[in-house]
Amino acid sequence: MGLRINDTIPNLTVETDQGELNLHEWIGDSWAILFSHPKDFTPVCTTEFGAVAQLADEWAARNTKVIGVSVDGVEEHVGWKKDIESVAGTAAGFPIVADKGLEVSKAFDMLQADYYLAENPTPADSQTVRTVFIIGPDKKLKLSMTYPMNVGRNFAEVLRALDGLQTAAKEGVATPANWTPGGDVVIPVAVSDEDAKAKFGEFKTVLPYLRMTKLPD
């Protein structure tokens, strides 16, 4: 059985370029983003790690920790970070898991349980290890996105999705297509009109099952 939305993530102890850490303890009371890569020193992944580094202040403002995963070892990670920081123009302060044994890749259902890497593997050998996982403070998986090797991830969208998840969790609402912070939100069907009016004030009934409102200031 693979990892699904609202499943508790595996509580693994992992080796990183910043030392050993336990995933649940590391997350603590924060949100977390785990983003995985099939190999160090690869072009698209380098730009992605750089993009994550450039968003350090945005993650911090949202009480969110980020951690990378790659199937190479700590020594490779340390060397690769120099390239990442060169491309990003800033420090990459987040840890990168050394998943040479594929424990994380398998536990998070990115590779089959019986999969193994051949000697001197290429990125193609672990290409499915290109997923973003957003995890809540309750250690449950809230969202995942998987990309092929030839399409770089849009971390502005990851940030937008994180905003949506945090808004939904805090306010008890849902977010519509293309929502961005400050936009109207969806009142859940389970909330009665009376309760919606008491909580949100005025709202617009677009369809019997679609009610839109602005969040209180």
How would you explain this protein's 3D organization?
With 217 residues, this protein is of the alpha+beta class. The chain has seven helices and ten strands. The protein has helices at residues 23-27, 43-54, 56-61, 74-88, 103-107, 155-171, 193-200, and strands at 13-16, 19-22, 31-37, 64-70, 96-98, 131-135, 141-146, 185-186, 204-207, 210-213. Strand 4, helix 4 (74-88) and strand 5 form a beta-alpha-beta unit.
In terms of structural class, how would the helical and strand content be classed?
alpha+beta
Number of strands: 10
| Poorly predicted sequence stretches spanning 5 or more consecutive residues | none
Helix-residue proportion: 25-40%
Number of helices: 7
Question: How much β-strand is present in the residues?
Answer: 15-25%
What would the average pLDDT be, to the nearest integer? 91
Gross morphology: elongated
Strands side by side in the biggest sheet: 5-4-3-6-7
As a whole number of angstroms, the C-alpha radius of gyration is: 19 Å
End-to-end Cα distance, whole Å, is 42 Å
Largest sheet: 5 strands, mixed
Oligomerization: single chain
Series of secondary-structure elements, N-terminal to C-terminal: EEHEHHEHEHEEHEHEE
TL;DR?
The protein is an alpha+beta fold. The chain is built from seven helices and ten strands.
Topology:
Elements lengths: L12 E4 L2 E4 H5 L3 E7 L5 H12 L1 H6 L2 E7 L3 H15 L7 E3 L4 H5 L23 E5 L5 E6 L8 H17 L13 E2 L6 H8 L3 E4 L2 E4 L4
Parallel strand pairs: 3-4, 4-5
Antiparallel strand pairs: 1-2, 3-6, 6-7, 8-10, 9-10
